[in-house]
Sequence to fold (572 residues):
Amino acid sequence: MLALYDGVRSSLPVRGHVLYVATAPNPTDAQAMRFMAQEALVPLVMVDDVTAADAAVTGPAASPTIDTSMVNAGLTLVAVAPGGVRVYRR
Amino acid sequence: MTAFRITAALLPIAAAWCWLRRHEVGTLPERVALAFGLGVALSSCAFFAARWSGLGPRAYMLLEPIVAIAIGLVAVRQSSPAASAPRPDRQRDAGHIAVVAATALMVMALLAMVILLRNTLAHPNGAWDAWMIWNTRGAFLAEPSGAWLDGFDAALAHPDYPLLVPGSVARGWVWVGTRAWWVPASLSVGFTIATAVLLVASVWRRQGAALASASMALLVAPEFLSQGTAQLADVPLAFYAVAAVLLLHDAPVSTVRTVLAGVLCGCAAWTKNEGLVLAVALPAITVLLVFVRRGRAVAADAAADLVIGAGPLLVLLTMFKLMLVPPNDVVSGVLAPGALRYWADTARVQFVLREMGGGLLAWGGWPVQGMTFVLLVVTALGARAPLWRVRPRMSSAAVLLGVQLAVFFAVYVMTPQSVAWHVQTSWPRLITQVWPTMVWWACAALAPDSPLIRPACHLSSGVSDLDQRTPMHPEGDLQETP
Fold:
C-alpha cells in the first residue's frame, strides 16, 4: 500500500497541502487508506479542503469520473500511477 | 554497511548500559532492559532537540556516536572493581520449585517470542494508530529538509503527541538510510521484550523463580502481546512506568536510583500524554510518603533527586507543547469551563464506570477468562499468607495505580469526544499502560510471605523504600542494610 504512492511522488509538489480524494466505498477503509497515503507521501500534508490544497491525490483504483470534479476545483490531471492513483495539480 | 549503521544506532543503548553498570543499578537482565529504554528515550530527545536547533539528520549522525562513546568511556573508566562485581543473588525458592519455575518461564518466553514474531509478520506496519500518528510523525522527523516541521501541522492527527516513539523511529530510519518497516517493528517488539525482562528479573530478584514465572504468565496476556507489536506508544509507556516504580521501591535506595527514577518519569511523559500523569503523580506520591514517614529533610532530598532526573525531559516537553504544536483536543475539552457539568450527568458517569469496570475484567484476550481470573490464580499461588499483608513500601505503587485510574475516569467523564467512542477505543490501551505495574505490584507486594518463598538473604528484608534511605557509600551508592 505504501509503495503504491512511490510512483506519484515526482508528480506532486515537494512540500505543502494535498487534497486526498477517497476511493474506498467503506468509510473505515477510506480513512485507513488516507492515513496510509499520508505516511507514504510525507512531507506532504493531506487535507480535506480543496481550497487549501495545491494538488490532489486519490486512493487506489480511482475512477476517471473524478477528473470532472477536480477540473471544477481548478485541478488538472497530471499522472495516473499503475495502482490507479490519480494525481492533480493546479 | 547496514550492520555498521545498526551498530552505530545502538551506541546510546551501550552507553546507557555502561552508565548503569558503573552505578550498579539492578541485575544484569534488569540493566540490559533499562539500558534499552534509557538509550532509546534519551537519543530520541537528543535527536529532536538537535533537529529543533537546526541540526540536520546527517550532522546528528556524526555527533551522536561521539557523545555516546564518550559517555560510555567515562562510565567504564570510573567503574571500580567492586562495581563490576556481580550483585549477591537471593536464592529464595526450594531447588525443585526453582527448576520447574525457570523451565516454565523459558517455555513462556519462547512462546511469547513466537507470537510476537507471528504478529509482526502478519502486520508489518503495525496497528491503525501506528501509521496514523506515530510512524507518520517519525517520517516527518526523518525528513532532511525544513519540511520536517510540517509534521506538526494541525491538519495531521494529534500533532501534540510526545515524540519518544516518532523520534526513535525517525532516528532509526536516518541511521538505516531508508524507511524500513522493520525499524518501528523492532522498536515495538524491543519495548515488549524489555518490559518482560525488567519485570521478571525484578520479581525474581525480590521473590524468587516461582513468582517470576507467575509474573511472566500474567504479563504475556494475548492483549499485551498484541499491543506489543502494534507499534504504538502504550507498551513503551508501560515500560517506563514499571521501571520507575520498581527503581523507587528498590532497597537500599540511593541518589542514583532516585534520579534515574525521575529520568524514567520524564521518559514516560516524553512517550505519551498519559505519561504526564505518571511523571507528576509518582514523584508527588513518593515524596509525600517519605515526608510522612521520614520527615522533611529526607523528603526534600528525594524531591530534589526526582526533579533533577525528570526536569530536563519535562522542560523539553513543555517547550515542545508550548512553542511548536497546537493544544491537545482532549485536554482543552476537559479544561473547558463547561466540562464540570458532565459530573451531574449520572447516566454518563455510570456508563464510564461500567465500561471501565467491564473492560478491566475482560482485558487480556484470554479465551476463557479475563485479567481478574489470572490475578486470582497468581495471588492464590503466591499467598497462602493473608493477601492483605502488603508491605508498607509497596503502598506508593498502589496509590499510583489508583491515581492513574482515577485520572482516566475523570478524563472519560469530561471528554469532549463521544464518551462511548472514547472509552471503547482507548480503554484497553490504557490498561496496557498500567498492566506491567499491576503485575509487578501483585507479584512483588501481594505475596511476600508465601511458603513457596524461602528467605535466604536479608539484603533488604524489613527495609522500606525511600523512607529507609541509607547513607551514601563513599565509593558508590550501594550500602547493605544490616
Notes: The CA atoms of residues 349 and 413 of chain B lie 6 Å apart. Chain B is about 70% helix and 0% strand. The longest helix of chain B spans residues 95-122.
